[in-house]
Input
Amino acid sequence: MIRTPLRPLARILEARSRGENPDHIERENLRLRHETTRDKARRRAESRLLVTLLALVCGFAIIGARMALLAATEPAPVTRGAVEVISSERAEIVDRRGRVLATNLTTHALYAETRHMIDPVRAARELGRIFPDLDAARLERQFTDPDRRFVWVRTRLSPEQRQQVHDIGEPGLMFGPRKLRLYPNGTLAAHVLGGASFGEQGVRAAEIIGVAGIEHHYDDRLRDPALLDRPLQLSLDLTLQAVITEVLSSGMRMLNARGATAVLMDPRNGEVLALVSLPDFDPNDRPPPPTEGEPADSPLFNRAVQGYYELGSVMKSFTVAQALEEGMLTPDTMVDTRSPMQVGRFRISDFRNYGPELSATDVIVRSSNVGTARLAQRIGPDGQRAFLDRMGFLEGVPVELVETRRARPLLPANWTELSAMTISYGHGLSTSPLQLAAAYATLVNGGWRITPTLTRQRTLPQRERVISERTSAQMRYMLFQTVQRGTASFARIPGYGVGGKTGSADKPRATGGYYDEKVLATFAAAFPMDNPRFVLVVTLDEPEDTTGSEPRRTAGWTAVPVAGEIVRRIGPLLGVQPRPTAEIEQSLRDALTAAH
Output
């Protein structure tokens, strides 16, 4: 760098020639040099300040943009990691009309942090007074244990109980928010809904999990965060469920029955409109499962799907339907009914002596064991087994209830000719009332096999034809005649065209064999029979009509009157317009002619 000298020789000589002081030149040059240095430093400082200012402006702009982006973005779900998050949300369950069957209620749990307790002895004593089921002495030991800092006291509280605990004034007693599963209709549809309970629990929340029924089957769907605002809609109709429960409960008491069940189904798509099992329970206070005794003794036992029984003469319809389908006979064909029928060392007889022969229709109407046994003899065991398999009797019912997983029909170990004969009139093969309802739906809906469902169906499901429309029309006529002039006359409700078949089966002992005076009485029905829109199955466990001179236990005296009253009560609710019986019968005859 070239620096300008402070005392340039040329200017000094010139100043001396003029008689001036040369030191003034040095001072002036020094002043100019200082001013130049100062100007350069100021410009450099101004440049640095400008760069710093620009950097700050850019930084604040970036931070502001990021904050605006976060504010406009949906919050991301917190994943389980270092902090455990418990979801207590669960979607509602509603009936086919949108009425609430299961919902959530905000409540509180009670716990104690002992390090904050002032008078733990008094707190334990007061809690024992508020909650009589709690052991006050045990709470006192827990509250005063120096090694214990946290104690769960109660998983849920009512508002009144919470206020009483609050009035104790103990700072160590604390409340944790909870979502409680609430069933506002109490026992209504209890076996369908099942129930829910607390799973994983924390101080601020508790997980709700399904433990039985629909709640268990659809547990993942009901807990799915993306579907919490979309209720699960069932096929049940709450009004029909209430009416059938009331009638069935009254019939059960009047007939001194041990238990009862009823299933109402749409035979076109398999929707279950009502499913009742008695005795029942309140899913808001679900009882513990039984640890001893017979499963059917517990109110948790769902007789409609878990109760696999030999249901007696209701099975005769399928024997006759197979014979019709295979062209062995027509409704007017005469069948040998000479009784008793000897098969090896076994004898098959009828409840009454119906003479040497009956028409195929009257085999159903009069419920002839001998007539159906002779038809089964002609069909053969292999043919019978294949047909019942197509009707869905040899496997469990794939309905949306966890209870069906272990419930399976009982089949003969060796399906012999004798087995085929006894199965033809309902002994030797067990089935459930829901399975029977599905099979009767196939008999009357034109021959289409359906799968029972407890969820609302928006479209007609895929169906497989099992029997022809002709056979279905013939069976509708025969079942109608059974009500009009046969064993099910108490179901003759004017205007509704009920048809069906009775079944009275001896009840098996747990140790083998059968009881002498205990039966399972069943009535499988459909209405209106010229265009069946509903299938109804009613089963009573150990019913007994004592209004006569002698006890009467058969289905015609027990299950049929109960089913008839159900039809009379629900017919108007279902929108079924009453019509003259003659008109319905003529419509059935016209269908028979068209089918031929």
Remarks:
- Residues 76-83 have pLDDT under 50 and may be disordered.
